[in-house]
Design goal:
mainly alpha, single chain, 4 helices, 181 residues
C-alpha cells in the first residue's frame, strides 16, 4: 500500500487574485511528504531514512525541421513545392488580368490571347516562375514565411480557385459565344 502524500496549498484572498495577462508568469509550488506506515503508533519516534529527491529531467529540445531539398528534380517533382504554387500564381494573375481587360475593352479570353496575349503570358510565366524558384533553390521552405491570413495554405487554395475560375471563364465565353460582361 502506498504511503499517503500531504499537499499544502495557500488559499487566495480577494486582493491576491491572479492577473491573466498574456505574458504573465504562473508557477505552482507543491510540497509532499510521506508518512511512515510500519504499523507503529503515531507517537513513535522511529524514522525511516529518506532518499534525496531526484532532480527533474529537463525536456529535450524541440526537433529541428528537416532540411529542405534543393535538387531540381525534388523542387519540380509532381508532389514538390513548386508546380502547384507556380500554376496557382499564374492562374491568379491570369484570372485578374483577363477580367480587367474584359471589363475595359469587352474582349473575351480567346480574343485576348489571339491579340498578342501569348507574348505577355510567356513573359509573365518566365518572370513569375523564376521568382518562385529562386527561394526554393536556396533552401527556404514554403511554410517558413507563412503566418496568419497570408499563409501558404491560403495561397494554395486561392490558386486552385483561380485555376477553376479561369477555366470556367473560358468555357462560359466559348459556350456563350461572346464576352462574359
Amino acid at each position: 500500500m502506498a504511503a499517503p502524500s500531504i499537499f499544502m496549498a495557500t488559499p487566495l484572498s480577494g486582493t491576491q487574485l491572479p492577473s491573466f495577462k498574456r505574458h504573465s508568469a504562473f508557477s505552482v509550488k507543491c510540497m509532499s511528504s510521506q508518512l511512515p506506515n510500519d504499523g507503529k503508533t503515531a507517537g513513535s519516534s522511529s524514522k525511516t531514512p529518506e532518499s534525496p529527491p531526484t532532480p527533474m529531467a529537463t525536456p529535450p529540445p524541440p526537433p529541428r525541421a528537416p532540411k529542405v531539398s534543393t535538387k531540381f528534380s525534388d523542387v519540380l517533382a509532381f508532389s514538390g513545392p513548386a508546380p502547384e504554387r507556380i500554376n496557382g500564381r499564374l492562374a491568379m494573375i491570369g484570372f485578374v488580368s483577363a477580367m480587367a481587360v474584359e471589363l475595359s475593352s469587352g474582349q473575351d479570353v480567346l480574343t485576348q490571347i489571339s491579340n498578342g496575349g501569348v507574348v505577355v503570358f510567356v513573359g509573365t510565366s518566365v518572370v513569375l516562375s523564376l521568382a518562385s524558384l529562386v527561394p526554393l533553390f536556396k533552401g527556404v521552405s514554403v511554410q517558413s514565411k507563412s503566418k496568419g491570413i497570408m499563409s501558404s495554405d491560403a495561397e494554395l487554395w486561392n490558386g486552385r480557385v483561380a485555376m477553376l475560375g479561369l477555366v470556367a471563364l473560358a468555357v462560359t465565353e466559348y459556350v456563350k459565344g461572346s464576352a462574359l460582361v
